[in-house]
Every structure is written in structure tokens, then in C-alpha cells.
Design goal:
With 92 residues, chain A is mostly helical. In chain A, 75% of the residues lie in helices and 0% in strands. Classes of the chains: A mainly alpha (92), B mainly alpha (357).
Chain lengths: 92, 357
């Protein structure tokens, strides 16, 4: 399987996962479940809210980060180490 | 307009929220700063109470930094080993900084103390960054005038040269960054920056990037990537603390992370088209603008009741600073693209764009 095909499959998988996360967040916002979780902070279940917030940001960051890389790979942008002459030689 | 149930009665313009996320994302990807120092005042302008602005801003920094760190990792700009060492020291320093902050709060001087320290730090870092960058740009301009192809090797700053020659065991070699330096020096820098960041209530990227460049001697882009990597963890810590205090509106942070993920890509990719000196100049300008905003805020605090005008002025300067930064980054990108296609660009811009992509 070519790298391009693999990238396309990965992008599709990541897009679906991203879509699911976004759909879930909008759902929980519109049903005010986020508010309910916010109110858990006053109770013993506050740690669930902390874990949820942390997890949501982590998962979203990872998914979006991976997705963006796959997109730039797919559209043909060659990502490699940037050679910055003035910086590179600056460490001599 | 959007209403968050956690903030009853406060309507937020969702387009502006997206713009703030997108703009801060570009700055984050380009200059390697977390962006909290821009996002927090912007959220206050949009109508968030200050405590929610800080908490939500930090949650956003975490998500956004992960996206940025991913991109910089792919570009080879992240020194994981160095980032982890700095992180350990910075976390310790932040805890001390928060405790100092609490002491000043108990003494009833928190606003004055924090703002005064912030102004001093910002002016020193911003001025030095600008001075060094402009001097460096002058050298590059002179080389171009003489028709020389490659710029002269940039010497590491005299501070970093001296520090790298200090041999206090254990000395660590960071292969990715290509430097060998004493562990204690890295820990001291991380700790010191952590203390300042803890006192000022920010992630500390705008202090850490210049410190890594000028004191440790890292190349600009390596400093940017490595700093973003360590910000992921320090922002996660801040996110936990602020969620526990009920200061995070997670859906607002969620919207901004999605917007900034696109901005971060653009900012990080622009770094391939510009020289390191451009990153430092734009970072220096942003820091100095933020210093002006902070000075206005301090006036507002000292004047007490008559502070409304200064508060508005402070917010305006900060918000306009973000706009100006974005214009400069986009302008550089366009100039670089034209240069690579063989089009003529002003001579003074040539020294800011890279010929190596």
C-alpha cells in the first residue's frame, strides 16, 4: 500500500474520531450535561470533571494535531527539518 | 452569540471567540508561546469574568500546545530530553511562584506586585530581544548589500557561550539541540522562569523562548518547539488546578482549540519560510506591546476608582497587539512566497525571509 493511501486512510479514521468528539461535546453542551459536570465540582464527584476536562483537551489536541499533519502530507507539503542557516551555524 | 450555562446572563460572540483562538494559535505556532498572555485579556474583553478567563485560557493552552508540539515534532524542532529537564525545574519554580503570589495576596498587594514584576520582566526581555534581533538584522542587511549569498554564522550570545563552558557535573549533551551544558544550569533557568511564570499567572513561554535562545544558546526554532512541548505539561497542571477551582468553561476552550489548531499549523509552517531573527523580532514586539498594556493596567490599579479608562486602554492595546502580530506574520509569509518565486521584495525584508526552503 502506498504512503499516500495509508495517509488517506489515517485521515479518514482521524476525521471520524474528531467528528465523534465534536458531536459529543456539542451534545453534552446542548443537553447542559457540561453544566451538571461543572456542578459536580461542589460534590465528591468533582474529580470526574477534572478528568473529563483534561481528557477532552488531550484527546482533541492529539486528534487535531495528527489530523493536521496527515492533511499537509496528503496535499503534498513536504515536511522536513527546516534548515535555518543563521541559527544552525550559530551554535558553533 | 452563544451562552454558556456556567455563565448565566453573559452572551459571548462566537465569531470573536473563534478569531481569538485562531489568532492566538498562529502566534503560538510561530513564536512558541502558549498564548495565555494574549487569550486571557481577550476573553475578558469578550465578557468572561477574570477567573473564568484565566482558567479557560489555560485549558485552551493545553489543547492548543499539543497540536503545536505535534507540528514542531514533525519539523524536528523538539528536544524531548531538554524539554523534560526544563519541565521538572519549571514545575518546581511555578509552585514557589504561586506561593509567593499567595503571600502578596495575603498582604493585600497582589495586583501591584504582580503587575510591577510583570512590567520589569517584559521590558527587560522585550528590549533585549528587540535590540539583539535588530542588530542581527542589520548584519544580514549589510551582507545582502554586499551581494553575499549566505549570512555570516550567528555567534551564540556571550552569555550562552560562557554558560556552556561552565563544567559543573553532570554535564548533559542534548543531541537534538547540539549543545552540551551543565544540568544545574538548565535546572536553574527552568526554575527561575517557573517562579516568574507562577507569579505572573501565565505559562511562561514568552519568557522561556528568549531564555532558551539567549541564555542556553538554542536555535530559535528548537527553542520554540521544545518550549511548546513543555508547555503541554505545565498547562495540563494549570488546567487541573483551575478546573478544581471551578474556573474552566470547557466548551469555550473546546471551540478555541478547534480554531487554533488551524492557526497553529499556519504559524508553525511559516517558521520554515523565515529566518530565526524574524521570530525574535515579532516576539519582541509582542512582548513590548504587552508590556505597554500591563503598564496601563498598573495605572488603572493605582488610580482605583478612575481606573475604567486605563482598563479599556490596556485591553485595547493587548487586543490590537494580537492583530498587529498576525498582520506581521501573514505579511512575512506572503513576502517569503514572493521571494521564492523570484519576485522582487523590499531589500529590508530579504534579511527576514529564509532562502533555504
Amino acid at each position: 500500500m502506498s504512503k499516500r493511501k495509508k495517509d488517506a486512510i489515517w485521515l479518514a479514521v482521524l476525521s471520524v474520531a474528531c467528528g465523534l468528539v465534536i458531536w459529543h461535546a456539542i451534545c453534552w453542551y446542548s443537553t447542559e450535561f457540561h453544566l451538571e459536570m461543572f456542578q459536580w465540582l461542589q460534590t465528591g464527584r468533582g474529580y470526574l470533571t477534572v478528568l473529563y476536562n483534561l481528557g477532552l483537551m488531550l484527546v482533541l489536541g492529539l486528534l487535531l494535531g495528527s489530523m493536521m499533519i496527515k492533511i499537509t502530507d496528503l496535499i503534498g507539503y513536504k515536511v522536513d527539518k527546516a534548515e535555518q542557516v543563521d541559527d544552525k551555524k550559530g551554535r558553533q | 452569540m452563544i451562552t454558556f450555562p456556567e455563565l448565566p446572563g453573559v452572551d459571548i460572540n462566537i465569531l470573536l471567540l473563534v478569531f481569538v483562538g485562531f489568532g492566538a494559535g498562529i502566534l503560538s505556532g510561530f513564536a512558541g508561546v502558549g498564548g495565555a498572555f494574549i487569550v486571557t485579556p481577550a476573553l475578558i474583553i469578550l465578557g468572561f469574568p477574570a477567573n473564568f478567563a484565566v482558567g479557560t485560557g489555560l485549558a485552551w493552552v493545553m489543547g492548543s500546545s499539543i497540536v503545536g508540539a505535534f507540528r514542531h515534532k514533525k519539523l524536528g524542532n523538539v528536544d524531548v530530553k531538554l524539554g523534560l529537564v526544563i519541565l521538572v525545574a519549571a514545575m518546581g519554580g511555578m509552585e514557589i511562584g504561586v506561593r509567593i503570589l499567595n503571600l502578596t495576596r495575603d498582604a493585600g498587594l497582589v495586583d501591584e506586585a504582580v503587575l510591577s514584576i510583570a512590567i520589569c520582566v517584559l521590558i527587560i526581555i522585550g528590549s533585549y530581544t528587540m535590540w539583539e534581533s535588530i542588530r542581527r538584522k542589520g548584519q544580514l542587511d549589510r551582507m545582502l548589500e554586499k551581494g553575499q549569498e549566505l549570512p555570516p554564522p550567528m555567534r551564540a550570545s556571550s552569555i550562552s557561550q560562557k554558560l556552556q563552558s561552565v563544567s559543573i557535573p553532570p554535564n548533559l549533551h542534548f543531541t537534538r539541540s547540539g549543545i552540551t551544558i551543565s544540568l544545574w544550569i538548565i535546572l536553574a533557568i527552568g526554575f527561575f522562569v517557573g517562579v516568574l511564570a507562577g507569579i505572573m499567572g501565565v505559562g511562561g513561554g514568552f519568557i522561556m523562548v528568549p531564555a532558551l535562545v539567549y541564555v542556553v544558546g538554542l536555535p530559535s526554532f528548537m527553542a520554540v518547539g521544545t518550549d511548546l512541548f513543555q508547555i503541554v505539561f505545565s498547562a495540563a497542571y494549570g488546567c487541573i488546578r483551575h478546573t478544581m477551582s471551578g474556573n474552566v468553561i470547557i466548551f469555550a476552550a473546546f471551540i478555541m482549540v478547534i480554531a487554533s489548531s488551524i492557526g497553529v499549523q499556519f504559524g508553525a509552517l511559516v517558521t520554515r519560510y523565515v529566518r530565526g531573527v524574524s521570530v525574535r523580532i515579532i516576539l519582541g514586539i509582542t512582548i513590548l506591546l504587552f508590556a505597554v498594556g500591563t503598564i496601563l493596567k498598573l495605572f488603572g490599579v493605582l488610580l482605583g476608582e478612575a481606573s475604567a479608562l486605563f482598563d479599556v486602554a490596556s485591553m485595547t492595546v493587548t487586543f490590537c497587539g494580537l492583530g498587529l502580530t498576525l498582520i506581521m506574520i501573514v505579511g512575512l509569509f506572503i513576502a517569503s512566497s514572493l521571494y521564492h518565486r523570484g519576485r522582487q521584495i523590499p531589500t529590508w525584508v530579504k534579511s527576514l525571509v529564509s532562502k533555504t526552503t
